[in-house]
Amino acid sequence: MEGKLCVGEDYEKEFDPSVYVRTYYPFDAGNTAENEILKFSLENLFHTFSAGGVGGDILIDIGTGPTIYQLLSACEAFREIIATDYAEQNLREVQRWLRKEPGAHDWSPVVQYVCELEGDRSKWQEKEARLRRTVTRLLKCDVTKPHPLGPAQVPPADCVLSLLALESACPDVDAYRAAIRGLVSLLKPGGHLVTLAVLHCQQYLVGPKKFFCLDLEKETVEKAVQEAGCQVLTCNHCTLNYSETYTTNDGICFVVGRKGPAI
């Protein structure tokens, strides 16, 4: 991958959300690497948020991007979801789907897959309607800041979710650890942090543009969650990799942590 590497503020200027979702979330009939990674994510989220699992009043999704797949199981377990992202164009893309605007990405195959996990594929339209009701706010976030949501007034959350976001935002491991601490600061005592990280990836393509990715190890992710004051409840690691056309990586990991009580 030659050419300029987009980092930091470049992301908001250069990132094309529609190209990103078409590239990494096609979920078509082909048994692609991207499909398998998405299934891994959806299945872990289903088990995390299913009855008797993680739930509550408020979930904050940090680094929502232009996607809604990560919220499909969560909308059954939380009264309110707050979606956030660094890039305005990503928030606009999510808003287009929420408002059923023409040209919004069609997530229905993914919604149907989640409904099948839940036991009834035919209820996908009800699922979409529920998610549209449950997402109440779209906010700007910056995980490189001590207060990732800036001046926005947000009550302490029962759960903070962040999938495949911190790796693009954090320039080094120290910044990643600080970002995890910032996410945990948004939680109530006893609240849950749910995160998915791509491992050993240094850059990825969105169309012709090349974006930075922090090279993480599974142990680094686990340790960052622990050092931020959470007990690691789940750490599911798999060896699935994205198509080499778009990026190179060596596995992904899904982690659930629980914040300790206030001292």
Automatic annotation (TrEMBL):
GO terms for cellular component: cytosol. Keywords: Methyltransferase, S-adenosyl-L-methionine, Transferase. One of its GO terms (biological process) is methylation. S-adenosyl-L-methionine binds at residues 20, 25, 69, 85, 90, 142-143. GO terms for molecular function: amine N-methyltransferase activity; N-methyltransferase activity. Gene3D superfamilies: Vaccinia Virus protein VP39. Pfam families: NNMT_PNMT_TEMT. Belongs to the class I-like SAM-binding methyltransferase superfamily. NNMT/PNMT/TEMT family. PANTHER family: INDOLETHYLAMINE N-METHYLTRANSFERASE (PTHR10867:SF33), NNMT/PNMT/TEMT FAMILY MEMBER (PTHR10867). This is Indolethylamine N-methyltransferase. It comes from Tupaia chinensis.
